User: Which sequence fits this backbone?
């Protein structure tokens, strides 16, 4: 009895302690990035480093928000990310529903082919993609970047939507057919409302993937006025010899705000969407 009580107490203390250490390990880079953006450059190289911020300096944020280039990059990233998310959702819902409900020749092979594209590294596609975009006049256009990012996000998105549609009983659709509802009406009025967690999960995944993209946007966009945030940061704010670390951390903090807001407001849908279909009855 005494041994059992000691084991329960050990688990009661050890589990929260380990979780706290693990959480601190994950959050420390974000904490250091945030306090670095609120320091003067003269304080960044002091030894021993100042782990706790006592006098925050907001001059870097004021300077950043007054720069038109940063605001242009930010706007471009929002346009590209939102456009990619909407296009990915539209195509993934249609394709996922088709793979879930319709029978057609080589269905399994088609799904395998779509998923196999995820095995190719982005770098291996860039040269051919650049040549093709140059031929069709899609270089230095947001449309071309949105198409590239959408094709990159689609395979996983289609698979996720198919899993959600597979878990919706076909009897609901059969009942709607008997009431005279068309196939399109069944999809938009019955199936999609029941798949909200999956739709939110796919939307968040697409937005994060496009917001964090560097290689596609750095290769396909060369005009400064059309650049998105990540290549803009790497080209404008990071020098070859010296770095203004406080300014760079300020830009990084500002660039993480949309992602933090997404997780703050939609984490419930994200978790339920990612775990859907993991266990089937």
Assistant:
């Amino acid at each position: 009895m005494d041994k059992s009580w000691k084991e329960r107490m050990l688990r009661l203390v050890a589990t929260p302690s380990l979780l706290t250490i693990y959480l601190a390990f994950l959050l420390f880079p974000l904490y250091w990035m945030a306090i670095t953006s609120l320091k003067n450059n003269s304080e960044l190289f002091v030894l021993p480093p100042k782990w706790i911020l006592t006098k925050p300096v907001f001059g870097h944020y004021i300077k950043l928000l007054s720069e038109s280039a940063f605001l242009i990059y930010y706007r471009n990233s929002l346009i590209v990310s939102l456009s990619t998310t909407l296009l990915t959702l539209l195509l993934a819902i249609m394709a996922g529903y088709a793979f879930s409900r319709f029978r057609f020749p080589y269905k399994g092979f088609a799904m395998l082919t779509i998923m196999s594209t995820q095995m190719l590294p982005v770098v291996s596609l860039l040269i051919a993609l650049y040549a093709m975009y140059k031929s069709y006049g899609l270089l230095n256009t947001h449309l071309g970047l949105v198409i590239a990012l959408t094709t990159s996000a689609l395979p996983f998105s289609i698979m996720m939507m198919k899993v959600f549609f597979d878990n919706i009983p076909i009897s609901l659709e059969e009942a709607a057919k008997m009431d005279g509802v068309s196939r399109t009406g069944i999809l938009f009025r019955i199936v999609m409302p029941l798949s909200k967690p999956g739709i939110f999960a796919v939307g968040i995944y697409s937005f994060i993937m496009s917001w964090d993209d560097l290689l596609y946007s750095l290769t396909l966009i060369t005009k400064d006025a059309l650049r998105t945030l990540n290549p803009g940061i790497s080209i404008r704010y990071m020098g070859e010899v010296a770095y203004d670390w406080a300014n760079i951390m300020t830009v990084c903090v500002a660039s993480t705000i949309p992602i933090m807001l997404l997780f703050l407001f939609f984490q419930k849908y994200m978790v339920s969407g990612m775990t859907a279909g993991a266990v089937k009855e």
User: Anything to note?
Assistant: The first helix runs from residue 2 to 36. The chain has twelve helices and no strands. The chain has one domain: 66-275. Residues 66-275 form a domain with the MetI-like fold fold (CATH 1.10.3720.10).
